[in-house]
Amino acid sequence: YWLAKMLYAGEDPRFILRRLIILAGEDIGLGDPMGLVVASSAAQAFDYIGLPEGIYPIVEATLYLATAPKSNSAGSYFKAFQLIEDEGKIDVPQHLQDANRDGHALGHGKGYQYPHEDPEHFLPQQYLPSGVLGTYFYQPSEQGHEQEVKQRLERWREAQRRALGIESTQDIPDLPQDTIQEIKHKHRPSTTT
């Protein structure tokens, strides 16, 4: 209904498609990762064929996204951004640093374990800086695809806690919407006059 109303009122179809892509990333996310593919493909198809037939990819994307499992867990990015802004510079663990050329002589990459040699393609080595080890920014929902992600992530986190001797963990609480809006504003391109 609302799609038809917007198009009837003369809304630019490309504006609608941009909003569908945002919806797919922000409100559907890993609940159904194909949502972003469908929305992006609809925008590309519309640009290729235009109106009137271009309405079909817009309708398809709208219906797909309206009926997809929803998850806003991609917003966990803002928790990490806020922590980085609050903490300042924190070094990358040495075993994760680039060991090419001069880095090898500095000890970069020493002790790194290649995860793809493991059957699950995961090894419980340290991936975060020591100051935030055991901090969880991302909490998968029970929606759609994320149910599977949640189970896998729980196994990996438990293996990492055991291997690294992590005694306590911390879930970063969701940020207030005004803080998220401030962070989004920092991502806007600067304008020069």
UniProtKB/TrEMBL annotation:
Residue ranges annotated for the MgsA AAA+ ATPase C-terminal domain, each copy included: 1-157
InterPro entries reported for this sequence: AAA_ATPase_RarA/MGS1/WRNIP1, DNA_pol3_clamp-load_cplx_C, MgsA_C
One Gene Ontology term of the molecular function aspect: enzyme activator activity
GO biological process terms, semicolon-separated: DNA synthesis involved in DNA repair; DNA-templated DNA replication
Pfam family, one: MgsA_C
Biased composition (Basic residues): 184-193
Residues passing through the membrane, by range: none
Positions of region (Disordered): 164-193
Name used for this protein in its record: MgsA AAA+ ATPase C-terminal domain-containing protein
Organism: marine sediment metagenome
Source lineage: unclassified sequences, metagenomes, ecological metagenomes
